[in-house]
């Protein structure tokens, strides 16, 4: 009956956690991404603008902890998070991120350490690729969503369910005022706190310097002159042959076997755990989680059981020049893959680059 409600509101209560939410989203959008069977939705309300996932463990709430990490490292629009933070500040509600209380002394060393710890916790959560709530599945359908968890740990603050209702109503009213899609704000960011963020223009140069190490390594190897074998002296008898035969340039066919082996191993690691899970659960008395672990162990043991002369195949035909060419190709391949991965999930790309680049260089 209020004139400011110009949008429909869907109240959704699901079971089986993420499975139930994914089944409802697929039925609502009439798609089938995960082959989850559902009986369909009871009705539709048009395109969904935003979603708020509410998780309450008690009827007494002392603070709200907000979760933003979605599936495969996706993040909601920063405006949605700013709306929640501004509403909490206006109404005196205590809100946290990564379970960390906000600090007021931002210029002190403990505050910097607190912000760094919060930032690293977000990087680890985003790099895992797992959604930290039901909101993470909405981001796949380009629906801006966050998860609000009611925490009952800080006894000095206590709110009843009326405050929770006012919070949801305030958030929906703020969303109702946004007549256009959220597109003017950031989709790539890191959060040391709710009141501050690190944009993509600040943290991407750090990743760029790591990739620059691989590029410099490639340019150094390319510029390094390869030692040519000594030629026989003119005074030597013509019947004598040189002890060091001239080494021919490696062809592209030499690099095909190691690339095929690497990609075959990647496909095996991608498909065999799922296939092994079905086979193991049908023929052996093990659970599904145990079947996946046993399959991965079997793949690892099979990799160790490869014949020892495999390095001759991987060495680019057994020549030093072929081995160096294969190294250059591997470094270039690694740099391109890490760069593409950082654009999709920066945290995962950065953690992989921080561990793989020193070893590769």
UniProtKB/TrEMBL annotation:
Chain coiled-coil ranges: none
Entry annotated with the keyword Transmembrane: yes
Transmembrane segments: 200-224, 252-272, 292-310, 330-354
Name of the gene this protein is made from: Gpaa1
GO cellular component terms attached to this protein's record: GPI-anchor transamidase complex
One GO-annotated biological process of the protein: attachment of GPI anchor to protein
UniProt xrefs under InterPro entries: Gaa1 (IPR007246)
Classification of source organism: Eukaryota, Metazoa, Chordata, Craniata, Vertebrata
Signal peptide segment: none
Pfam families: Gaa1
Keyword Glycoprotein: no
Origin superkingdom: Eukaryota
Keywords recorded for this protein, A-Z: Membrane, Transmembrane, Transmembrane helix
Name used for this protein in its record: GPAA1 protein
